[in-house]
Specification:
The protein is about 35% helix and about 25% strand. The protein is an alpha/beta fold and about 325 residues long. The protein has a single domain (about 5-20, about 55-100, about 130-325), classed as UDP-N-acetylmuramoyl-L-alanine:D-glutamate ligase. Strands 6-4-1-10-11-12-13-14-15 form a 9-stranded mixed beta sheet, with helices on both faces. Strand 10, helix 5 (about 165-180) and strand 11 form a beta-alpha-beta unit. Helix 4 runs parallel beside helix 5 (about 165-180) and helix 9 packs across helix 10 (about 315-325). The protein starts with a helix and ends in a 5-residue tail after the last helix.
Length: about 325
């Protein structure tokens, strides 16, 4: 199958993203001197921008590849929440957020000097939602899933409190009953709660922490294979996609094991690369692509967005160029 046919098939996908949404703010400027007040660079601000972040960035990547996307999560009844909802509308993302009082919208503000991230300011509450809110949000998500027919569901966890064990189990059960693939991008708090998910996508540090072990910096193949085997033994699921940053990724499943090395790149910002990998893997599952193509495309997409400053969504043009460069298609 050629890359143009793959990209065209993504247009037929309807996806639901469930998870921790954020607002990414950027202040851009130039750096030409050090402050006389302290040994820090002075950023002369030339502009600013806001973008959907966290689970909302996964939705943005899906939409950028022309899928139909709905997004749900918790946001605050605040200015950041209103800005985020306006951005979703501007990007054509279905807004299924649940605004709640007394809980601010998670906001990350990045200071960019000479196209390099100098500082990040976070405003958030990352405790789990109280039982009443957790039950309310679970009912909200179940109602969304009952009201539409989705081709894939992505659960994007950043340990900010939107996802909880009962909700995760409910989503996986709902999708299993309807034959809908589910992608889970875990964090620490609920790492082992995604049993029977279709694709489980931790990075190496997350998996080492969860298994309370570590492997050598040389990343010997037998050590990586051992980690993947332990993960699958601890929690049954179909695919394990282990991301290794600049060293690519591994894909493990019952019928096979695949190592996909990364291309050499000029990396400018790794922020959001995991979101891009999750989005592309989800689309590949939704259209039934072979695991090998899913792994290669996800790896290429995640690497490509690292070449851009700030959090950047993958585009069809980027992915087409990457695929052709690596001879995925003739």
């Amino acid at each position: 199958m050629d890359i143009d046919r793959i990209l065209d098939s993504f247009r037929q996908v309807r996806a639901l993203v469930v998870g921790d949404v954020m607002l990414d703010n950027y202040w851009y400027g130039s750096v030409e001197r050090i402050s006389p007040e302290a040994p820090v660079p002075v950023v002369e601000v030339t502009g600013s921008a806001s973008m959907p972040g966290g689970a909302a960035n996964v939705a943005l990547n899906l939409r950028s590849l022309n899928a139909v996307v709905d997004l749900t999560g918790l946001c605050g009844l605040d200015e950041a929440g209103a800005t985020l909802q306006n951005l979703l509308s501007q990007h054509g993302i279905g807004n299924k957020l649940l605004p709640v009082p007394d809980r601010p919208t998670t906001t990350k503000t990045r200071i960019m000097g000479n196209q390099v991230q100098m500082l990040r300011l976070d405003r958030e509450v990352n405790t789990e939602a109280d039982p009443q809110l957790a039950e309310l949000f679970q009912g909200h998500v179940e109602e969304i899933m009952d009201s539409a027919s989705y081709d894939v569901v992505i659960m994007q966890d950043y340990d900010k409190g939107a996802l909880h064990s009962a909700l995760i189990t409910s989503v996986i059960k709902h999708c299993a009953e309807r034959g809908i693939p589910v992608v889970a991008d875990p964090k620490r708090r609920h790492f082992w709660d995604f049993a029977e998910v279709t694709l489980f996508k931790p990075n190496l540090r997350e998996l080492e922490d969860a298994l309370q072990t570590s492997i050598s910096k040389q990343l010997k193949e037998e050590d990586v294979e051992r980690l993947l085997s332990l993960c699958r033994q601890r929690m049954p699921h179909h695919f394990t996609m282990l991301t290794l940053g600049a060293r690519g990724l591994w894909l493990s499943w019952e019928e096979g094991l695949l190592k996909v090395p990364a291309r050499e790149r000029h990396v400018r910002d790794v922020s959001g690369a995991g979101d891009t990998v999750a989005a592309v893997a989800a689309l590949c599952l939704a259209v039934g692509l072979p695991p090998q193509i899913m792994a290669v495309l996800s790896n290429l997409a995640g690497g490509r967005v690292c070449e851009e400053p700030g959090v950047t969504a993958i585009t069809p043009e980027m992915l087409r160029s990457e695929a052709r460069h690596t001879f995925l298609v003739a």
